[in-house]
Specification:
alpha+beta; 6-stranded mixed sheet; 5-stranded mixed sheet
Length: 363
């Protein structure tokens, strides 16, 4: 009787999954298929020219890597951007600058990526806390605050310029407040020395998925050099950017980070089921959990489909059909933290991956 009830709950969950929206992901990025580009006027000639730039910007956001713009299929599509436009409008900022606001068809763009064989970086992306520090050999080392203006446009703080560039790349970022609490948690020399324990502790109040530290110096030759350190869980990456001005140095660094993240999380768009992976999922306790698991799996870009193999009290055994490989699925699960790896569930010994549905996953 209990087995029949569990199967009935599952059928209801499958029905509910088809009728309701997917669960919100950790950090879904909005407007991936939209771009705002500056224009000199509102003429059709200018609009047609800048629409190409808007599409290029969107392709960078949804792939994470500007090198894909060199692909023959994508570069041809950019020259034919009007085919992919869904709607456009104009807007102006406080300085009376005019912008073309373009929205492109997600279906058409995804079909374009499929045709080109270019992977898609899904909307669920790590939230990055950005710490910036500067060392000047005359004034010493300082942690930059949200009010710091450093080179470039004097009307924008350096963190505002980071936010604008990150938004163009589809990268969710947050800046430290540098209030009294931050000042008590971390010193400039500790941040510059990349003291991971101190940096991690000081970052906890912001609940980021990952941390990016940029250490800025001005060279004797008049260039800006930024040494970047990226930390996610216990893994870290280092890279550098150098330019004549601070803005391109920032852009280079954020571009390198998005390309790195896309190399981990981007998945190919295919028309048929790919790799099959058996999984066990524990921690299932009734209808709400069944519905949550189904909605969550349906919303993962790495999962093209699934098949139920076995139902027992509090556990499911499924076969997932993946867009890429199992490592991409593991990376996506580690980012969301809704399904956590465990061992010894004991439902099906052929399962390649054992997971547990977190009790707070549906919150």
């Amino acid at each position: 009787m209990q087995q029949m009830r569990l199967r009935s709950w599952l059928c209801l969950a499958l029905l509910a999954a088809a009728l309701v929206a997917p669960l919100a992901k950790a950090v879904p990025v909005d407007n991936l298929y939209q771009a705002d580009v500056p224009v000199e006027d509102r003429s059709s000639a200018t609009r047609n020219k800048m629409m190409d730039a808007a599409l290029a910007q969107v392709l960078v956001k949804i792939t994470g890597n500007p090198t894909y713009l060199n692909d023959a299929t994508l570069s041809r599509a950019i020259r034919q951007s009007s085919k992919y436009v869904q709607a456009y409008s104009y807007s102006s900022d406080a300085s009376n600058n005019t912008f073309l606001n373009a929205r492109f068809s997600s279906t058409s763009i995804n079909n374009l990526l499929k045709q080109a064989g270019v992977p898609l970086w899904p909307e669920n992306r790590p939230r990055v806390l950005v710490w910036l520090a500067r060392r000047d050999y005359q004034t010493g080392t300082e942690i930059l605050t949200p009010n710091t203006i450093l080179g470039g446009d004097p009307s924008q703080t350096i963190y505002q310029r980071v936010a604008v560039d990150a938004n163009m790349k589809g990268l969710p970022v947050v800046q430290p407040l540098m209030d009294l609490e931050d000042q008590m948690q971390i010193a400039a020399d500790q941040l510059w020395a990349l003291d991971s324990a101190v940096i991690t502790a000081a970052s906890q109040r912001y609940k980021p998925d990952s941390i990016l530290v940029g250490r800025i110096t001005a060279t004797s030759g008049g260039q800006w050099r930024i040494s970047w350190w990226y930390l996610q869980d216990t893994q870290f990456e280092v890279f550098d950017s150098t330019a004549e001005a601070i803005d391109p140095a920032l852009e280079q660094g954020l571009g390198a980070l998005t390309a790195y993240l896309a190399s981990i999380y981007a998945v190919p768009i295919t028309g048929s089921y790919g790799v099959a992976l058996n999984v066990e999922i524990g921690g299932i306790d009734g209808f709400a959990d069944y519905a949550g698991v189904v909605r969550y799996l349906s919303g993962l870009a790495a999962v093209q489909g699934y098949q139920l193999r076995q139902v027992t009290p509090h556990r499911l055994a499924l076969t997932l059909y993946l867009s890429g490989d199992s490592n991409q699925l593991r990376d996506a699960l580690a980012l969301d933290k809704k399904l956590e790896p465990v061992t010894g569930l004991g439902v099906d010994t052929t399962a390649a991956m054992q997971l547990r549905w977190r009790s707070d996953a549906a919150l």
